[in-house]
Design brief:
Blueprint (H helix, E strand, L loop, with lengths): L1 E4 L5 E4 L12 H24 L5 E6 L1 H4 L7 E6 L4 E6 L13 H10 L14 E6 L3 H15 L8 E6 L11 E2 L4 E2 L5 E2 L1 H8 L3 H13 L14 E5 L2 E8 L4 E9 L6 H13 L4 E5 L2 E9 L5 H26 L23
Helix pairs in contact: 1-4, 3-4, 6-8
Amino acid sequence: MGERNDRSGEIVPVTGRPSLLDDPDTVDLRSKVDAAWLDFRRSLEAALPAMPVGARLTVTLDPTATGTGEAVYDLVLRVLSDTGLHADAVGNAGLPEEYRLDRVAVGDLVALGWSPPGVVEETADRFGLRASMDDAPSVASVVTRTLRDVYGAPHPAFLTYTVVGDDVVPALASARPVAAGTVLPAGRAVSASTAIAAIGIPLDEQVRAVVAGFLKTDPESLQHDEDGEFSVRAGSAMVFVRINDNPQLVDVYSPILTEVEPDERLYERLSQLTRRMPIGRLYCTEGTVWASVPVFGRDFQATHLMLALQVMTRLADELDDRLQGDFGGKRFFGEGDKTGPRTERTGMYL
């Protein structure tokens, strides 16, 4: 249930459509995601009345973690007075063309209570909303629904936030403060990464959300294989994401070539390429050439996994073609590939 704020400023209930799939196989994950968003809404609801007049809270969907590139989906909340709140949200004028909101999304914003750009004072090209401090619960609900249902944040852990004009940085559930430190409800100052760990979001949930963001799909609809691994096709290559418990790592890897007859020349080439790679390694074992980029599971950072996926998908799709041309073998999606070695080519491969 959302809230609608019409141009007169009155807040009234409005019914929204479900934001998650009803597949019974995803009920457990869905409930966890729902609970995380509920925690975020409640913490935001509690934080707003505690902010001093003039304070500004900016909440942003982390573009690095979600793979939205230069698109920055953000909302700003300001305390105008002891009794008044102002909020504005990014519109199409502030987004790259390929990430702009379609008509349905714009309609959803209006239904949630946002006035079109420029209607509310001091909003310019952004959607706006004005409310009394008594309506902080409704504003928190509108903000949460906007981030989740319209801007597509898969989980509050993919949100970052900054506070200007307040000495105390509130803890907004699993969202991450951009400042060097934050204050948990108990009053203990900790770093942002420690705050995330204290929330206790399971690693598999975080990994699922990152992979879903990379593939631009819902975490609830993302499927894994019988080994619990996620797969991402990259042209003629396949990239897998696996969680290892001991040591706790997230391995992003790809079988670049299979049915290879390794020789000294191949091992030398893989060694040279590995030295050029900024992260990860290439190696050959039992007739298969592998590429791997590990990410630490302890103090997990979603941005690191997103970077690993970006690197691996580009690398695997290019490298399997080049190595197959020089050393034979078969690519993952290389129907008709011949396994015998070919004449070596020269040149840069990364």
